[in-house]
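Homework help board

Subject: predicted structure for assignment chain

Our instructor gave us this sequence and asked us to write out the predicted structure in token form, then describe one feature. I got the tokens but I'm not sure how to describe them. Can anyone check?
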Amino acid sequence: MLGLESPSWRRWLGLIGVTTLLGGCSFGSDALWPSLTGEDPAGATAPAAAPPPQGVPQGPVLGDTFFQSPGVTPGQPTGTLVGEKVQELRGDLGRLQGELVGQNNNLQTLRNQARSGATAYHALLARINARLQVGSTPGNPELVAQWNQAQGELSKVGESIASLNGLAADSSSTSALAAFLLDSTRATFGLYGALEEDHRQLAVLEDEVNKTVVVLDRLLNELTEDIGRTQNYYTTERSNLTALAVAVDNGEFLGGSLGNRAFGVPPPPIPGGGASMVGRTAPLVVIRFDTPNVQYDQALYSAVSQALARRPNAAFDLVAVAPGLGSPAQVALASNKSRRSAETVLRSLTNMGLPADRVSLSATTNPNAQVAEVHLYVR
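My token output:
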């Protein structure tokens, strides 16, 4: 165990526990609300972020169907004009099925590319998170290098999305040609001067065109689903990677992006803004900037994460609170300092993945404040 005098123990003591304020709860006027400061408070610790959930698919959930060509049955020329038309249609079908084979092979290659990139990406994330959970130095060059490598692997997934979209456009054109070929085959039955053999070959050809149309439609449908799933996965992981960059900068594990927990439409802002809540409503978090480097990221992340877990459509009011005592010049300087601190906290929240439209920023003064403070309220 760590002794009370160890640097690691003092670092954890610097993070104050955060109490979540949510709708439906009532509090007395004498309730004690925790704050985050640069001082060593008496024994409170920040709640540890939960480790990544186990058993979650590590990568986009893609289809696994291999789309095979139905094939083209050869036929003998009959010497009629209808027979020549049948041979022409058979050649068109062969070329169409060749495109189908190429598109299927391309799809399987892109799926493997996305899966490979995602597997390497999550392996790097696991190594980074393992280091951060036991604590590391802020901006550790090894973790920064691994983060950059993870970003490169994730970009491979992003590149596969553009390729999948291009393949979808090609498959859509091929599907349209297949539908046209099916109409042409059926229309050939009505041509004058056909032999029974011509119609027999046409019937076989019609069945094979039908099967090709079905395979192409299934390929296009599954391809569209793959694009949607890969796009959602990529967007989510880009947000998670941004949140992980904050953790690497701080040298401690935060968790996944807060954007993964934010759903629905945030409620409208309260009249008068968040500044009207200071002194009248208990804040979710108070950060006191009484030292040059206040370590608040982990506790802030935990508090907002818990709030979103209980109310996924919650929005937040971030208020810069400056001391209201002293000369007008002193108050103005204090107000500027508190605003800059609030902007720093806002950047931290967006880096953690919280959508910017869920946070309002305002400023006020408070004669009871001794130093620049930033208050965060849930609405």
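Reply (TA_rk): Your tokens look well-formed. For the description, you could write something like this. The longest helix spans residues 196-250. That's the kind of observation they're looking for.
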